[in-house]
# Entry
Amino acid sequence: MRRRWFRWDLWTTDLTGESVGYATVLVQNVGGWCGVLVVITAVVGNLAIFNTNMACGTRSLFVLADDHLAPPCFTWLTKKSGVPSIGILSRKGRRTFYGRKKH
# Structure
């Protein structure tokens, strides 16, 4: 089935044998190395999103506490690197608690 990527009903993110995605089209038309490049790019992009989330999400608590709108413990920074460790731990706790799927 050579040009199955023209069939839009087969496009999905599911990893079955009949699914078609960006990597499938690139591998069929360019070569196998391009599929690997797409996966590497996706991993780097997800790591960048995670880094941004950790940097910005914890700093928002720091700014709120600095303006006296949150408990002052969120303004405490580590002496060695200046990281708001309490903000990071509280963000992780909130994401764990609120991120659970309800069954």
Q: What stands out?
A: The CA atoms of residues 11 and 21 lie 6 Å apart.
